[in-house]
Amino acid sequence: SDLIIYSRIGTVGRARLVEVDFDFLASYSCCTIKPNHEVVDAIFLCHLLDSPSILKQAEKGIRAIGVPDLGINEIKNFQIIVPPMVLQKQFAKRATEIRQLEITQASARRRLDDLFQSLLDRTFKGEL
Q1: Each residue of 22-71: pLDDT tens digit?
Q2: pTM of whole model > 0.70?
Q3: Is the dihedral of CA 31, 35, 39, 44 positive or negative?
Q4: Of the four, 2, 53, 76, 106, which is 20 to 30 A from 46 by CA?
């Protein structure tokens, strides 16, 4: 099942989707959010929780001076938009496609960096 881990103490307001089929415990500094799949798509909700409007709500709900602490009740009371499910699914599909492109590009960038470093190494050793 899909769960969202949401940071609420320290670095507040980071959402990450977790797809697991076993029970686990999250750190006290986080909370788990289990989306109602009849109302909201998990991928859509995860991105929504990372949006500037929700981050602004999170910042307003922080209750500490030293270490930021966002209470569970403040998270439960976030005002969110819930478009029709068909639009949420379209968003989730596009977001997933973009994430896959980012992963592919990062991998290609690492490979290019490795090849360039190898070329530099061979150049300075006089092998070229």
Answers
A1: 777 788 889 989 999 999 999 999 999 999 999 999 988 888 777 888 88
A2: yes
A3: positive
A4: 106
Q: Tell me which DSSP letter residue 63 carries.
A: -
Angle of helix 85-124 versus helix 42-49 axis, rounded to 10? 70
Q: How far apart are CA 37 and CA 84, in angstroms?
A: 12
Q: What is the DSSP letter of 10?
A: S
71 phi and psi, to 5 degrees?
-75, 155
> Kind and range of the H or E element at 33?
strand 30-33
| Partners of 17 in beta bridges | 4
